Every structure is written in C-alpha cells, then in structure tokens.
Amino acid sequence: MTVSIDPDLCYGSGECAHRVPSVFAFEDGYGVVRPVRESRGDEGLVREAAELCPSQAITVTE
Ligand code: SF4
Q1: Quick one: pLDDT at residue 39?
Q2: Rounded to the nearest 5°, which phi and psi values hold at 45?
Q3: pLDDT reading at 35 higher than 90
Q4: Domains plus CATH for the chain?
Q5: Would you say the CB of residue 33 lies under 6 angstroms from ligand 1?
Q6: How far is the CA of 1 from the centre of ligand 1 (A)?
Q7: Distance between Cα 22 and ligand 1 center (Å)
Q8: What pLDDT digit, counting tens, does each position of 4-20 carry?
C-alpha cells in the first residue's frame, strides 16, 4: 500500500493525523504522510481516512 497527500488539495483539517497517527502527521498546518512507518494492521484505517478526508487529498494505491 502506498499513501500520498496532495498538498495542493489538503487544507489542513488534521483529521487524518488524528485518525491514524501512526501513518499521518500534522506539520506546518497540513497533513503529511510519515516517511517511515509501521502500518501493518492500519490499512483499513488508512482507507477510511482517505474516504473521509474533507478535501479528498489522500490517495491510496494498492
Ligand atoms: S484529512 Fe485531508 S484535508 Fe485534513 S489534513 Fe488530512 S489530507 Fe489534509
């Protein structure tokens, strides 16, 4: 699974970082994907975070 956030779409709601802090972080007012992560078991939460991102800025590629 590859996860990315489009910085042009993210407006910094912070929801992804609150929902899955092991994968997402909130830096400088915007959501970012942590560069190194232990995401085993978080796949479902990551997909949910992408679906619920209010700006649809999160892309998940299997
Ligand atoms: S949930 Fe979406 S809009 Fe909010 S910080 Fe994360 S990527 Fe940005």
Answers
A1: 56
A2: -70, -35
A3: no
A4: 2-61 (3.30.70.20)
A5: no
A6: 18
A7: 15
A8: 999 999 999 999 999 99
